[in-house]
Amino acid sequence: MAGTELEVRPEDLLSRTADPVYGPEARELIAGRTVLITGAGGSIGSELVRQCLRLGAARVHKVDVDETALFELSLELYDHALFGADSDIHLVDVTDQRAMSRLVERTRPDVIFHAAAKKHLPLTQSSPDLAVRTNVFGTESVIRAAVEHRVARVVNISTDKAADPTSVLGWTKRLAELVGAYHGTSTTRISSVRFGNVLGSRGSFLPALAHTMRRGQPVRLTHLEASRYFMTIPEAAGLVIEAARMSTENEVFVLDMGEPVRILDLITRYAALTDRPVPEIQVTGLRPGEKLHEELFSGAERHHETTHARISVTSVARQAGLEDVLAHLRRLIVEGAPAEAILAALAPATIQAPAWAPKHAAPRPVTTIRSARGRVAPRVRPSALLRPA
Ligand SMILES: NC(=O)c1ccc[n+]([C@@H]2O[C@H](COP(=O)([O-])OP(=O)(O)OC[C@H]3O[C@@H](n4cnc5c(N)ncnc54)[C@H](O)[C@@H]3O)[C@@H](O)[C@H]2O)c1
What is the pTM of this model? Predict the structure, then answer.
């Protein structure tokens, strides 16, 4: 969109390298394999496509419901679009269970990266039906297709908002993590990868800031102290591939994004890097469902290090009652229930942090916690965490 072009490279704003970070095992996971990527027209999905091609994938099937995004990706990859060389481009809605099953049966992927989602916090808050349909049932549909056709690995892209969720976005992404854990088998390993904001992704903070600053308008900020974890798109995609090669069972990998950054500081840095004065800031107040600071793990989750310095892991148990929660949500959506009813049904479906866990606490540094057998030691019974709707 005109006016949102970035004048600053995200890696300069974060003082980070933009280079993806994978080792030989990640290369081994992808090289010579067939990969299917949902949400391939989006920021994360398209970067996963590029990196898988660079890692020598035999075939990368790109799936999205946005035909223009697929057209543009095709143009980027093949220098022409929709002229036959791009038969690995698929206009498929991931929520269409039969279409997904047929696609997976036909393409026979070794690995699926599931990046298709609704991701905007205020929009998912006002349209919870579409968020549930895409983020929960879309993920379930991809996973069912993968299990049915014995795909070896599925990696569901999650978000830090799934940790102690307070928004429709967080709730639906947490449910998607649980759906993954519920369906995983020894044949189909399913894991999720959580991370924070990806700087410069489509429809995100940085393009909006570029637009506002270019027009010399005041910048709106929900809270002066609001902070987020940030990383670049290539960093995120590279670490997702690294995490994928480590998945052994039902787990959530969490990417290390360094320290959280105050959004106000990013605005100041953007102004300095573009030789502009610091803009006027209009504080609007936190939006419904928005946290002041994001957390990487819920208060109930125990996590430990992996062999990769920038990836931690927490295990996810199969949640008793999950099917009831999903059936209730499905019924509400089929019946066209109002947003309030879906919000009310979602809230109890959330994994609640135990009372001792501080809500909206400042992010904690990653620590190693192991039980005697080296696995994550749960403090609360998972069955106690999910209240059936
Ligand atoms: N961008 C970020 O800052 C960020 C941070 C953490 C996690 N994530 C997660 O990464 C994933 C991808 O985010 P993104 O930034 O690339 O978003 P994006 O909007 O750029 O891409 C999402 C893609 O999914 C597609 N899609 C949506 N519904 C679909 C459906 N029913 N069937 C098929 N395709 C569908 C969209 O058309 C779009 O191309 C999301 O799960 C998001 O929650 C993103």
Answer: 0.89
Which residue's CA is minimally distant from atom 26 of ligand 1?
116
What CATH number has the domain bearing residue 94?
3.40.50.720
Cα–Cα dist 334/384, whole Å = 28
- Residue 64 Cβ inside 6 Å of ligand 1? The answer reads yes
Q: What is the pLDDT along the chain (389 residues), one digit of tens a residue?
A: 546 677 888 888 887 766 666 788 889 999 999 999 999 999 999 999 999 999 999 999 999 999 999 999 999 998 888 877 668 999 999 999 999 999 999 999 999 999 999 999 999 999 999 999 999 999 999 999 999 999 999 999 999 999 989 999 999 999 999 999 999 999 999 999 999 999 989 988 899 999 999 999 999 999 999 999 999 999 999 999 999 999 887 899 999 998 999 999 999 999 999 999 999 999 999 999 999 999 998 888 889 999 999 999 998 888 878 898 899 999 999 999 999 899 888 876 554 433 322 333 333 322 222 222 333 322 322 233 333 32
Query: Is 83 part of any domain?
Result: yes
Domain total of the chain: 1
Q: Domain range spanning residue 360?
A: 21-198+231-257+295-384
User: Does any ligand 1 atom lie closer than 6 A to the CB of residue 49?
Assistant: no
CB 51 within 8 A of CB 40: no
Catalytic residue among 62, 119, 161, 291: 161
Distance between Cα 35 and ligand 1 center (Å)? 17
Q: Does residue 4 belong to any structural domain of this protein?
A: no
Q: How far does the centroid of ligand 1 lie from the alpha carbon of residue 57, in Å?
A: 22
Whether residue 182 is contained in a domain is answered as: yes
CA 334 / ligand 1 centre spacing (Å):
23
